[in-house]
Amino acid sequence: MTRSVGLIERYRADLPFGPDDPVVSMGEGSTPLVHAPALSERVGADVWLKLEGLNPTGSFKDRGMCCAVSAALREGASTVICASTGNTAASAAAYAARAGMRGVVIVPEGRIATGKLAQALVYGARVIALQGNFDEALRLVRRMADEHPIALVNSVNAFRLEGQKTAAFELLEDLDGELDALCIPVGNAGNVTAYWKGFQERGASPRLFGFQAEGAAPLVLGRPVERPETVASAIRIGNPARWEEAMAAMTASRGAVRAVSDEEILDAWAFLASREGVFCEPASAASVAGLLKYGADGCARIACVLTGNGLKDPQTALDRAGGVVPCPAEFGALEAAVLG
Ligand SMILES: *Cc1c(COP(=O)(O)O)cnc(C)c1O
Fold first, then answer.
1. Is the CB of 164 inside a 6 Å radius of any atom of ligand 1?
2. Residue 111, burial from CB neighbour count under 10 angstroms (0-12, 13-18, 19+)
3. Which of 75, 211, 248, 296 is the most exposed place for a label (fewest CB within 10 A)?
4. Do residues 96 and 123 make contact, with C-beta atoms less than 8 angstroms apart?
5. Which has the closest alpha carbon to 88: 68, 110, 70, 109?
6. Interatomic CA distance for residues 90 and 103, integer angstroms
7. Within 13 Å, how many C-alpha atoms sit on residue 316's CB side?
8. pTM score over 0.90
9. Positive or negative, the Cα torsion across 225, 62, 11, 70?
């Protein structure tokens, strides 16, 4: 059996960590890349799914958080803070717990998926429900980190991108460098920026297709959105922190940033679960919704990043899924229920 190593151990030569630096790791990264036959057939190209929901807290945020919290520990910080639509909070809370640090997470009140809230609380973070949206929360935590000795672990932290770029390394290794395009959901735009950094460091330039939800599509519109709205809570962001870098990356790759509707997101999300057996969270399905909507654009080999696990957001799932079949504890009734 192979021992699972975390991404700092796997890619230390490519990361800003020396051999004696403290590492806060839970075996993040090295996520499966699975071929998607039904999706491939629909779009007429070979499509793979990068299952980032299989990271330790169920989203790709663990890649960046492993590096950001390790660096904070090295610098002697005792508290980490972040603003979050949910997954950054869950991840920061977990890595802070493991590092013996205090975790403080600021989430938009009432707008965070159930699983993510449960995670942040159980990992022991102080969870602050801000009466405002993500963009306001980010502005306020930046000031907190400026005025207090607290490490900010949002994706404005360069270590986050360092960790997240390793997903690009893995893709290139798994596909022997043969990748024409990447489809990825875009919220704060840190992840698409990180993938591009990783690809560039390996001399690769697949086309980057970023997808935003129609109601939260500042990069597509070319201006901030004051009240971002979408079922995909992880990308409900109106003023991305990595705006310029992300746009530069998508342009340099001859890619694009485009919008998909909530209905298209949920259709793709249901298709992934019912046809590929992959349950991701709604925001993740924006990558596949975009591919289905805009087509392969001449690309033969495409990877879609499924950023988070479907179990994060059970309420949206149950609201959309079919109902259960009631049945008395009696064989005839069971037969009717099973065969009906
Ligand atoms: C954070 C997140 C995104 C968006 O990533 P950005 O780096 O903010 O663009 C997409 N999907 C999920 C599940 C996320 O948690």
1. no
2. middle
3. 75
4. yes
5. 68
6. 10
7. 28
8. yes
9. positive
Stated as kind and residue range, the H or E segment containing 73 is: helix 61-74
Q: Does ligand 1 lie within 6 Å of residue 185's CB atom? A: yes
CB 234 less than 6 A from any atom of ligand 1 = yes
Q: How many Å separate Cα 33 from the centre of its chain?
A: 15
Query: What atom of ligand 1 comes closest to residue 189's alpha carbon?
Result: 9
Domains annotated on the chain, with CATH: 7-59+159-319 (3.40.50.1100), 61-158 (3.40.50.1100)
**Residue 116 in contact with ligand 1 by CB distance below 6 A:** no
Average pLDDT, the chain: 96
The pLDDT tens digits for 218-273 are: 999 999 999 999 999 999 999 999 999 999 999 999 999 999 999 999 999 999 99
316 or 121: which leads in pLDDT: 121
pLDDT at 95 > cutoff 50: yes
Is the distance from the beta carbon of residue 87 to the nearest atom of ligand 1 less than 6 Å?
yes
Q: Give me the pLDDT at residue 1, please.
A: 47
Write down the residue that tokens 């922190």 correspond to: 241
239 CB within 6 A, ligand 1:
no
| 55-87 per-position pLDDT tens digit | 999 999 999 999 999 999 999 999 999 999 999
Residue count of the chain: 340
Nearest CA to ligand 1 atom 1: 234
Closest residue (by CA) to atom 8 of ligand 1? Answer: 188
pLDDT attached to residue 111: 87
